[in-house]
Specification:
The chain has about 325 residues and is α/β, with parallel strands linked by helices. A seven-stranded mixed β-sheet has the order 3-1-6-7-8-9-10, with helices on both faces. The chain has a three-stranded antiparallel β-sheet with strand order 2-5-4, with no helix packed on it. A three-stranded parallel β-sheet has the order 11-14-15. Helix 11 links the parallel strand 14 and strand 15.
Length: about 325
């Protein structure tokens, strides 16, 4: 039976303002995970969409002083999409400090024209600057701090049912009397294998095949897709936000779970190059070896790369040849 007057959530991946017109972004994996979890968690009670302003306007680069705006930034186009969808809640990602102003601009624009729409912001920058953001920008209603799936779903459900947010861990907001409130942190999801497989239907994968292939013009194989196999990092580098966003708690998905997603991307989207976006892809040698063995066993003719921000002690005479054989 079709549910009438379904509660609507719109997640926005903003345009970016940059000094390099060739700047590129990969798929918004955080928003994809949020949308997938929300759809699973609230089933037919909530309709969720992603408005990917960056990808939809990827080939549009507008000069703005000495900077460039990449993506759909025209106010009329953004407002038309919001008007057509009429969301109850808008979630805006704010990951990078360099692009934070773009997220604020979108929040302000929407609030000016649709003042009853709840504006929620999340991501690494929003997590680190939660209280300062709410002090400075009164058109943002809530900040979701850290890992968002459980927190945002609980917040959406609470707003939908018009119950109190006082007990939702991981949010920062202003109370009815204007007092700034930061609820206690939410515990991290210890077992990432329990999260539903990320749905790419929420974005235009055809666009990202082009975007990623343009960004990695040296890739021998295409199409190129992004994937994450773990969250967090055990180290404490002073320049990195990971220890604030994910805490110093490195949590991997099991290799079988990873390969299941890779096979889906390999067959459904014809992915032939994978970019592992983990901070610490090589942290546990056994996991690294098992992923490589499974790639070889499944006979995926792929190329892949990873970044190892941490110590490189697991790159050895045992692992490097195996990684190469598996397509690294």
């Amino acid at each position: 039976m079709q549910i009438q007057n379904v509660f609507k959530v719109l997640l926005i991946h903003p345009y970016i303002t940059t000094n390099d017109p060739n700047t590129s972004l990969t798929e918004p994996l955080g928003l994809l995970s949020l949308a997938t979890y929300l759809e699973c968690f609230l089933a037919n009670e909530v309709n969720v969409r992603i408005l990917d302003l960056f990808a939809l306007g990827y080939e549009q680069c507008i000069k703005k002083g000495e900077m460039y705006v990449k993506g759909i930034s025209q106010k009329g186009k953004i407002l038309k999409y919001v008007e057509d969808y009429q969301p109850n809640i808008i979630g805006i990602t704010c990951n990078f400090t360099a692009y934070a102003e773009d997220s604020y601009e979108i929040a302000k624009l929407v609030k000016e024209f649709y003042n009853k729409t709840i504006i929620v912001m999340g991501g690494a920058h929003a997590t680190m600057e939660a209280e300062d953001i709410l002090k400075k920008y009164n058109y943002i209603d809530y900040i979701v701090r850290g890992e968002g799936e459980l927190i945002f779903s609980e917040l959406v459900n609470t707003i939908k049912n018009n119950t109190g947010v006082e007990n939702i861990k991981g949010i920062t907001y202003k109370s009815v009397n204007g007092r700034l409130v930061s609820n206690p942190d939410r515990e991290l999801i210890e077992n990432l294998n329990l999260l539903p497989m990320m749905e790419r239907k929420f974005i235009d994968m055809g666009l990202y095949k082009k975007i990623n292939s343009d960004a990695l013009s040296f890739a021998k194989k295409t199409p190129v897709v992004s994937i994450m196999t773990s969250r967090g990092c055990p180290y404490n580098c002073i320049f990195c936000s990971t220890k604030i966003m994910w805490k110093r708690n490195w949590r991997p998905r099991n290799p079988e779970n990873v390969i299941k997603e890779m096979l889906l991307l390999y067959t459904k989207y014809k992915a032939r190059k994978f970019m592992f976006q983990d901070n610490c892809f090589t942290s546990i040698k056994e996991n690294l070896i098992r992923i490589c063995e499974l790639i070889i066993r499944e006979k995926m003719r792929i190329e892949w790369d990873c970044v190892s921000y941490e110590r490189l002690n697991n790159l050895t005479d045992e692992t490097l040849p195996l990684m190469y054989k598996a397509g690294c």
